Amino acid sequence: MKDILEKFCSITTNYYYSNPKNFDSIFNGGNEMRPSVKEGKYKIFTFADRNEKRILGMKNLKYKLERYSIVDEVKVFNLSDVDKNFIDKHQSLFSSNIFPWISKAYLMNKWLDESDDGDVIFWIDSDVVDIREDGIVNIFNLCNNSEKGIVGFHNDYWLERLFTKSDLFNYLNITDNKYWDTNQAYGGIFVVKRNEFTLKFFRRWFEICSIIPLMDNSKSKSRENPHFITHKNDQSILSLLYKLNNIKTFPLPLYDCNNTNIIAIHSGYFNHKVSLPLVWESCWHNISYKEMWENCNKKFNKKVSPSECLSLSTDYFKNYD
């Protein structure tokens, strides 16, 4: 595995694993799924409003999750949980279809601040179908064993350059292509432990999300990357903050995660007695990496995802020179 890992780091589109500064941590670390000590409360938060199907789905999931012995608190937020003055000030965001994402940034900042040190919050967007009880402890293990108390999850096929507007790159003074040529993280699922660093991190995320031209889908003042398709709002902001703060992102912990995934292997996803908990929409399951990659490219009728993205699988290196 070490030989493959070295080759992987030289070609991968994953920011953390391609960064030479992390090589010591990578080759001497990993296995974040190992058992950990619970220091505070374990919480699961989500947001559901204006969509009856998602509201019902999250209420049913909340009822189920509250019965898991390891979980201390489950909240399904809606717009009534967001301060009215904040909504009025950012009316253009709340009157558009991106209102759940600015709400998420507001609520995470608020409730992380009101939590105690050591508490761990698992945020899920309302399109998650299920979280299995036999694997949920491993979500919290990932966070307890993380370097800074934040666990992000990345998309294996979408790069930053496709879904982040140029004005955001400029605002964050990002000029190095290692940022836009690496995988974008998901904005809809992450885990965070309350500490001094994470408080500052999510306060910064909320601050940038509150800047309307950086959060909405308005046209950038500066020229877009030639690969640019559309802006992903809070997700684009969160993903760049992960990279600027050198935060490791992980594959989605899907219950049927492909066991050739190099980062998943290195992070302990398939260790003895480890179960993975996440059930997402059916399109995420029972499909190969190559099929998923091809579907991503077919979506836009052109090769938007480079073949290097397939290096996430050990299969890629079978005939690697």
Strand count, sense and barrel status of the largest sheet are: 6 strands, mixed
Tally of helical segments:
16
Across the major sheet, the strand order is: 2-1-3-6-5-7
Roughly how many Å apart are the termini? 16 Å
Instruction: Please give the CATH class.
Output: Alpha Beta
What is the CATH third-level topology name? Spore Coat Polysaccharide Biosynthesis Protein SpsA, Chain A
Structural class by SSE content: alpha/beta
Radius of gyration: 19 Å
What would you say this structure looks like, in words?
The model has no long low-confidence stretch (mean pLDDT 96). By secondary structure, this protein is α/β, with parallel strands linked by helices. Strands 2-1-3-6-5-7 form a six-stranded mixed beta sheet, with helices on both faces. Strands 4-8 form a two-stranded antiparallel ribbon. The radius of gyration is 19 Å and the shape is globular. It contains 16 helices and eight strands. It has a single domain (2-317), classed as Spore Coat Polysaccharide Biosynthesis Protein SpsA, Chain A, CATH 3.90.550. The longest helix is centred in the first third of the chain and has 16 residues, at 99-114.
Write the layout of secondary structure elements.
Layout: H1 2-11, H2 15-18, H3 23-27, E1 42-47, H4 52-65, E2 73-77, H5 84-89, H6 91-94, H7 99-114, E3 120-124, E4 130-131, H8 136-144, E5 150-159, H9 160-163, H10 166-171, H11 177-180, E6 183-193, H12 196-209, H13 212-215, H14 234-244, E7 249-250, H15 262-266, E8 278-279, H16 289-299
Parallel strand pairs: 1-2, 1-3, 5-7
Antiparallel strand pairs: 3-6, 4-8, 5-6
